[in-house]
Amino acid sequence: MSRGVRRGAVWAVLLSLTASLAACASGSDAGGDLTSEKVTLRFTWWGADDRHKRTQQVIEMFQRKHPNITVKGEFKEWNGYWDSLATTMAANDAPDVMQMDELYIASYAERGALLDLNEAEKHLDTANFDQKALATGAIGGKQYGLPVGLGMYSIMANLDLLAKYDIPVPDDTKWSWDDLKSIGDQVSKAGGGQVFGVQSPGINDAAGLSIRARQQGKAMFDAEAKVVLPQEIARDYWQYILDLSKSGAAAAPSVTIEKASAGLNQSATATNTAAFGLWWNTQLTALTAASGQKLKLLRLPGETQGPAPGAYYKPSMFWSVSARSKHPAEAAAFVSFLANDEAAAKVLLTERGVPANQKIREAIAGQLKDTDKAAKEYLDTVPVSDPPRITPNGASTLDTILKRHTEDVLFGRTTPDAAAASFIEEVQSEVDAAR
Amino acid sequence: MSALDELRQLRKGGAQVRKGDNRAAFWFLAPWFAGLLLITVGPVLASFALGFTKYNLIQPPRFIGLDNFARVLSDERLHNALRVTFTYVLVSVPLQLACALGVALLLNKGLRGLAFYRSAFYLPSLLGSSVAIAVLWTQVFGTDGLVNRVLGFFGVEGRGWISDPDTALSTLIVLNVWTFGSPMIIFLAGLRQIPEVYYEAAAIDGASRWARFRSITMPLLSPILFFTLVLQIIHAFQSFTQAFVVSGGTGGPSDSTMFYTLYLYQQGFSRFDMGYASALAWFLLLIIAAFTAVNFWAARFWVFYDD
To answer: Which string of b and e fits A147-160 if b means at least 16 CB within 10 Å?
Structure first.
């Protein structure tokens, strides 16, 4: 009898579990009409305080327009964001709308986690997007992400620090990486151990390495997702980072790593402990707010010495909708609002990049603060070449692999040459493993 | 009527009592039972099955035989993670237990305000594996942190303890040792069990303090010491939070805080290779089982059961 009860209970539990899983699988149609019932959308992004405030404001604007739709914002720092997205995706509990990065879009799209936004075109207006810009969020003809803004890699220079030490602002139209290092040395000398010249690159993202390759007419990946980065370029890159550290142009390795890992607000640029740092041009506003000093965007060094400029327009991020969203139509409508609504754009301005939507870009031009204007002007004036291919599936860990190799080099655990070889091999094996 | 008598009575009582009781017991246990099945047993079995597959968390798993287990042998970063984890376990557990025993011996002297000291020393154990303490640790051992300020006061130049691969693991070891409170409480209880007469007799025979400790305290405390050792080793192997928070999830700098569990986590949730992560989880189980077995075997030579 008791065994019968036990067995019955087990089956009941298993059956109810199956039933609830089956219920999760059903969803509404992306091409259907918007519902008039009460609906809650979950929307997630990464970023710093400034972004959170602006985004919450825009969410409220959307809710006023669609009183039956509640948008729940969930925001995190960059690192926690991707951990959390991976777990919620696996638990079939992904947010409906998410901020997606170039580093991860292929990984999520190729695993079938993202909705092809073309299915929701009825609710999503993309008329004012340049085709080239749209293509940055498409893989195999399917639109997995709508580009939000464009950004460019740049050097963020702290003018107040330079003025304090009486060091002239360098002429960025034809400066080289060596020029950056020597002016960095000057700043460090004047800074007396408190302020350093350069916030070391190679810790937070692989864009710097990619730029170095591009300046010499090479690239990180080819069209078939093969790693084609020449080992000498990677070696020179790490040698440069090591030289910055050895000469004192950058702070001691442990300080450098600590500051760079702690997020934008604790970075050397934000805490005014380094005069130059590599950043996306659109981070000017957030960094100016955090540092409280006058920052200026300089062109990248080494842009005029090689065959082509390394700079390019990078889609700063995408809006993506989960393939398992129960309300894809409403999610698409929300994305459309984020991308096309002028009032929303006037709140968001260029915080997520200079808007990829051309009509919006013009609409906000008059509203821009000085820092936003400077970011837009940088984008409008600095020469660029064609963007690199999207980071292939499997290489989402590119930045962390790079960081570990930089740490190994900075702490003398490996040589730049060995780091270069190991980096290339590891990235290639990650791409291969994801197939 | 004592509990034992009650039990006897129950046993004697007819089948109709037992049946009703069983059913009630079953329903009272059902929530726990469902939890065990769904939250523990289910995932454990699933992870065993997933160990033989390639599973990227979103698409269905694909059977690949023993590939994941073969990879364990050739994965150099895993070997580094093992080195880091073994160092952590083998250094921090003995240190932690030594501190626990030392403080327990001190407190056992019948200090005034014992309750206060006991609580004060116990507190870190409650907090030690929390995220908040790990965050605090990054501040304390940061470049501008407390440790460097104290060192600076003595004219010693500090560094970013957590962002330097030579010292990062040590900060985590210190954190673990700092949580010696819970073994200390257990030791304290154990010390109270040792009859005072043994010490009195030994003192009359002229045994030194050290001899009393070695020949009375240690043997009589050894079962408790053994129990604590086994538990703390298992616990240390499973440490995750501290390394995750302190390194920002990377196990860095230079993989120097890459605990086994953190590496496992990264395989599953950063590289989306849940098959390999599952295989690693089972491999960890084997390691812990082996350690525990060795511990039990070695116990024959030093643990004294007074019966």
So the answer is: bbbbbbbbbbbbee
User: Residues, chain B, total?
Assistant: 307
Per residue in A283-341, pLDDT (tens digit) is 898 899 999 999 999 999 999 888 888 998 888 899 999 999 999 999 999 999 999 99
The pLDDT value recorded for residue A1 is 35
Instruction: Give the C-alpha distances (Å, rounded to integers) separating B105 from B99, B101, B112.
Output: 10, 6, 14
Provide the CATH topology of domain A30-149+315-377: D-Maltodextrin-Binding Protein; domain 2 (3.40.190)
Contact B58 A258 (CB under 8 A): no
| Alpha helix segments (H runs only) across A131-261 | 131-135, 159-164, 177-191, 207-215, 231-247, 253-261
Domain boundaries, chain B: 3-50, 67-302
Strand order across the beta sheet in which A274-280 lies: A196-199, A274-280, A153-158, A295-298
pTM of the model: 0.84
CB contact under 8 A, B56 and A13: no
Report the alpha-carbon distance of residue A357 to residue A78 in Å, rounded. Answer: 24
- If you average pLDDT over residues B84-104, what whole number do you get? 95
- Any B CB within 8 A of A1 CB: yes
Per mean pLDDT, which range of A13-27, A124-138, B143-157 is the poorest?
Answer: A13-27
Q: A199 - beta bridge partners?
A: A277
Q: Where is average pLDDT lowest: A21-25, B29-33, B49-53, B282-286?
A: A21-25
Nearest to B250 among A17, A258, A400 (CB): A400
pLDDT at site B11: 59
Q: Do domains A30-149+315-377 and A153-311+394-433 have the same CATH topology?
A: yes
User: Which class in CATH covers the domain with range A153-311+394-433?
Assistant: alpha beta
Parse chain A into domains and list their residue ranges.
30-149+315-377, 153-311+394-433
Which residues of B are less than 8 Å from A422 in CB distance? none
Distances (CA, A) of A384 to A310, A356, A381: 7, 16, 9
What are A222-273's pLDDT values in tens digits? Answer: 988 899 999 999 999 999 999 999 999 999 898 888 888 777 888 899 999 9
Quote the pLDDT of residue A196. 93
| Contact residues on chain B for A404, CB-CB shorter than 8 A | 250, 252-255
Chain A residues 385-414 within an 8 A CB cutoff of chain B: 396-397, 400, 403-404, 407-408, 411, 413
Which tokens in the block code for residue A191? 């800074």
Domain B67-302 top-level CATH class: mainly alpha
Q: Which of A10, A82, A112 is opposite residue B59, by nearest beta carbon?
A: A112
